[in-house]
Amino acid sequence: MLHIKRKSTWRRSALLVIAAVLVMTIMAACGGKKDNEGGSTGLTFAGAGKGTVVATYKDGNVTEAEFNKYLDIFNIMQPGYEQVIAIPQFKEQLLQQFISYKILAKQATEATLKKAGDQTDEQMKSFEDTLKTNADVKKTLDDKKVSTADVRTYLNLMLVVVEHMNSKVTDDEMKAEYAKNIGNYNPVTVRHILVATTDPSDSTKTLRTKEEALARAKEVKAKLDAGGDWTALAKQYSDDTGSKDNGGEYKDAKASDWVEGFKNAALTQPVGKIGDPVETEYGYHVIKVEKRDQVAYDKITAEQKQEVQSVVAYNHMNTFMTDEMPKQDVKITLPEASASPGASASPGASESPAASESPAASESPAAK
């Protein structure tokens, strides 16, 4: 299937781990009374305060042992990142993020800790049931010497931060965000025919040049304008395997999940009109918007409100990262390590979860 959804922008910014956790089905947290250092008993990794210090900040430090435990669990949650984490710049970015989470978790109220803890108790039961039936997951934990208590601590930290940022969101902020980006939160139905420049199943394989794709897209539009049948023409011309067999239709979809050019067309193109070919990273799309709903804020569902809250919470997190973290006097002293072969850039240039998908509205620190 051709995915026309936007790539995760959480994977391009500073909060990598939160989004990684939020999309997990085993998301959990554990509250607890505050200890002498101001943290929560459920927020402290094994090795904290012991051994070599790899970072200091205004109110604390990170030891090599606790950071390595954090990375081990991150690898379990995000398999495939092992080589990426070996890149020094990225490892340092993860450490910066870990510090920010520790600082924010320390600011969390007892109510926030309680809410996160309640979610943990519920979700950890599911996780532990998975361990009983999934030998692969259990072996991974055993191989890395990660206990269920370690997993609980990791997820606890993530979710406490999530709930802490949610607690900062006001109803007025949510109303303003909804009014500004109303199209992101309401369903839209479109038909499209994609004339791709690259093979949807193999992005390294060129199907046609941009000029050839545009000419073919214009040919499709002319046939549609002349009364051509969407079902027949989509089957003949479209390279989107996800929609070509149903007349190119995406019904009641979220425009915010699509790549920018396609999203803009879905939100601005007149309903019922077949627009000129729209270029995206996939090629050229001939698009017809069939329906675009816009519901008043006081009429939206609880799920939609949660999406709005998520975006506002992300904005608060982004503000903290850009405005407050520089004031924390962070000093990092990670041991020097050679970059992995072929690694020439931090993963921020590609895809990785963390301050988010611009945010893609659905992946933000408040998503649950």
Automatic annotation (TrEMBL):
Residues 335-368 have a biased composition (Low complexity). PROSITE patterns: PPIC_PPIASE_2 (PS50198), PROKAR_LIPOPROTEIN (PS51257). Residues 329-368 are annotated as: Disordered. InterPro entries: PPIase_dom_sf (IPR046357), PPIase_PpiC (IPR000297), PrsA_foldase (IPR050245), Trigger_fact/SurA_dom_sf (IPR027304). Keywords: Isomerase, Rotamase. Residues 185-291 form the PpiC domain. GO terms for molecular function: isomerase activity. This is Peptidylprolyl isomerase.
